[in-house]
Amino acid sequence: KNLVNEAAMRAAREKRQTVIFEDFDQARDKIIMGSVRTLAIQPDEHHRLAVHEAGHAIAAHFLENADPLYKVTIIPRGQALGVTHQLPKYERHTLSKAYLCDRLAIMMGGRVAEKRLLDSYSSGADDDIRQATSLARAMVTRWGMSDDIGPMDLRASDEHPFLGREIAQPKNHSEATAQLVDQAVKALLQDAERRVGEVIDKYQDRLLALISELEAKETLQQEDLMRILGEPVMAPKLVSAGKQVTAASMPG
After folding, report:
1. Can 218 be counted among the known catalytic residues?
2. Which of 53, 114, 193, 213 is catalytic?
3. What is the CATH number of domain 1-33?
4. 171-230: per-residue pLDDT in tens?
5. Is 34-251 in CATH node 3.30.70.20?
6. Cα torsion for 15, 17, 20, 26, to the nearest 10°?
7. Residue ranges of the domains in the chain?
8. How far apart (Å, rounded) are the C-alpha atoms in residues 60 and 225?
9. Residue 233: its pLDDT value, please?
10. 92 and 234 in contact (C-beta within 8 Å)?
């Protein structure tokens, strides 16, 4: 309903009586990624934004368990200066460790690309690091995905790893166990950085081409991404049927 209303409003602003595909496309982007913001961005920062988003995109394209790329933009939207937009093919009810590890690598892709190509980090990875840390901690403390910790419920809050707010709970484990959890979380994040670094090194020529076009056009659609990056790496699908779902996006 919101999508249809937003698309109709866009058509009205354009003084058209007919709603076209572009209206729905722009409406979906606004709902998922937020409204476009007009900011004065310096050329060096514009380049860094392109490097950062291209790092997310190259990881999403070449990690075999990742959701397919849909769109990449360095036009500021909502609270983000850029967004890498993925469109899952099917509705998921459970998340495998392989999928989650690739998700971590995608989150760290912007930061690693900045370091590889610009030899420095920036504050642009702030939300990426926050989300990746939250997800890695859930993998360790809730879902038993650390061999060192094992299948123990060690959650310290009611926060969902893909959402934001945290409701603190008393610790039900020792300080020594808390240190092991921190080490396991750190190991997952460092492994994610290592893996995405390997992807960036392997496909650096395509990464550079992506950065160049992203700087020039600011928004690249799925067909642009396929042309620049080539065929994605896809994991074998065990699902025989599923529903189409709305896209997920990764701010900056």
Report:
1. no
2. 53
3. 1.10.8.60
4. 667 888 889 999 999 999 999 999 999 999 999 999 999 999 999 999 999 999 999 999
5. no
6. 40
7. 1-33, 34-251
8. 11
9. 74
10. no
